[in-house]
Design brief:
Helix content: 25-40%
Number of strands: 24
Structural class: alpha+beta
CATH architecture of the largest domain: 3-Layer(aba) Sandwich
CATH topology of the largest domain: Alkaline Phosphatase, subunit A
Strand order of the largest sheet: 2-24-10-1-9-5-8
Number of domains: 2
Shape: globular
Number of helices: 17
């Protein structure tokens, strides 16, 4: 049985990868593409944010089932805003300890639905070993003690110095959890200037070390985070150099098998991204200021609780090119007013909310177009999902063709992905998705004027390439949730 290595390159853009391969500047990825199957358009989650997408990859489920709604979201149960550290300013405002605790512990141990198994849990229950190198989602049955580096320990007042997390047979989380470094371990880039080991080179070196020491698990996820930051700063279409650096780390792993051909004889190698990015315009007009637009409503701050004596009406949770607006009280009275404000702005491509059980509404900003839709009906999409609807399908760039087939254009799998965002955990909310070139501005959310951003329902944010080498695979309309059953099938697990 071949082992499986899954390389995940954050914000991997299909156009840039194809161009980089054609230019011959990513020899390892080009080798894998030439000896495997290349998919140019794999649909990601909505919102297209890393915690959401990586949860979908490792569980084979959308956020309505795995329970991780976004990078910033409102926790109805605890009546607080959850932020995994979107900006340095929000980290300082909320507190480093709370942000680290959210990202290191609560994301996997509490926010990820315990009833939705991970790939690690499924495979290890069937006798296989699994591994994780710097990937966000790592929940499994093995306990690990995270050792917080001194600078982080000082910043958290030593409250997180010895923290337990769960993981697969092997777990690396930067400097927090890792195997013993070899004698020349100084070459592993770590410390505050290397994000405490959360970087491409560290991920590559740990993977190489596991193979050299004969500790490669049957299934291993290797996460390369650097391309996301590069894309935010330089723009997604200029990420060739960053992809080339990720390629060099993939090459270093393949080199450990003696030859790249031998690597494929012994392994299935998969390369993909969690989401892509699109260009944001340079100028204030490309920032949709939700704080200003909704200033007439009393808003919950990131440091507050919704309970007690406060009278907050809404919580705004920006996720770059999408946002949640949660209703904390009087939903039926407030929702029409909030929607009425948002719909006047043509920069809001979609404004959606749940009307009742199995009935949803989505509007297009700046127009009178409206669509009601429900699961189960006479129309079927390419994924075998059935629908009924009333209104204008152009709101999600969909159309009905012959034999009642529903097809989506620039908003892939739009209806399912909207529902998944509206049904992720409890709480009443409106979701907004920005038109091309725009990004949401609100307290706590990062902005990237003139750079790259993601989060929206739009195709450019939502589709990633994927290479599968070392086994035959046929996927007509691939989505990132298809990784889960595909890998289980390879190992003969139902």
């Amino acid at each position: 049985m071949k082992k499986v290595i899954l390389f995940v390159i954050d914000s991997l853009h299909p156009v840039v990868l194809r161009r980089t391969l054609s230019e011959g500047n990513a020899p390892a990825l080009r080798f894998l593409a030439e000896h495997g199957t290349y998919f140019d358009r794999v649909v990601s989650s909505f919102p297209t944010m890393t915690p959401v997408a990586t949860s979908s990859m490792i569980t084979g489920a959308w956020p309505d089932r795995h329970g991780v709604p976004g990078f910033i979201w409102y926790d109805e149960e605890n009546q607080k805003i959850v932020d995994y550290g979107a900006t340095a300013q929000s980290v300082l405002k909320i507190g480093i300890e709370k942000v680290v605790r959210n990202l290191l512990i609560k994301l996997n141990e509490e926010h990820l639905n315990s009833k939705t198994p991970t790939l690690y849990e499924k495979l290890e229950a069937n006798g296989y070993t699994t591994g994780n190198v710097n990937f966000f989602m790592h929940r499994a049955t093995h306990p690990y003690r995270a050792k917080v580096p001194l600078l982080l320990a000082l910043a958290t007042r030593f409250r997180l110095t010895q923290t337990e997390v769960s993981g697969p047979s092997h777990l690396t989380l930067g400097q927090l959890v890792h195997p013993p470094f070899p004698a020349r371990g100084n070459s592993y880039p770590r410390g505050v200037f290397h994000r405490f080991g959360f970087n491409d080179v560290f991920s590559g070196k740990i993977s190489v070390q596991l193979i050299l020491e004969g500790k490669q698990p049957d299934f291993m996820v290797v996460y390369f985070p650097d391309n996301d930051k590069y894309s935010h700063h330089h723009g997604p279409l200029r990420t060739g150099p960053s992809i080339e650096r990720a390629d060099s780390q993939v090459a270093s792993v393949l080199d450990q098998f003696g030859s790249w051909e031998k690597a494929l004889q012994e392994n299935v190698i998969i390369v993909t991204g969690d989401h892509a990015q699109s260009i944001v315009g340079l100028g204030n007009e490309y920032l949709i200021d939700l704080d200003r637009a909704l200033k007439s409503f009393r808003r919950l701050k990131a440091t507050e609780e919704a309970s007690g004596d406060n009278d907050k009406e809404i919580a705004i949770c920006p996720n770059e090119r999408m946002a949640f607006i949660y209703f904390l009280q009087q939903r039926n009275e407030i929702l029409p007013d909030v929607v009425g404000i948002l719909v006047k702005d043509s920069r809001n491509a979609q404004i959606a909310w749940k009307v009742s059980d199995n009935k949803y509404c989505v509007l297009q900003g700046g127009t009178e177009r409206k669509l009601f839709f429900s699961r189960i009906g006479p129309y079927q999409d390419v994924y075998g999902q059935s629908w009924s609807f009333e209104g204008d399908l152009s709101v999600v760039d969909a159309q009905v063709t012959g034999k009642q087939k529903m097809e989506f254009g620039k908003f892939p799998d739009a209806l399912t992905r909207l529902i998944s965002a509206l049904e992720a955990r409890n709480g009443s909310r409106v979701v907004v998705s920005a038109a091309s070139g725009y990004e949401y501005l609100a307290v706590g959310g990062p902005i990237h004027p003139g750079g790259g951003s993601h989060g929206s329902l739009e195709e450019e944010d939502s589709t990633v390439p994927m290479i599968v080498a070392g086994m035959p695979v046929k996927l007509e309309h691939p989505r990132i949730i298809d990784l889960f059953p595909m890998i289980l099938r390879h190992f003969g697990v139902s």
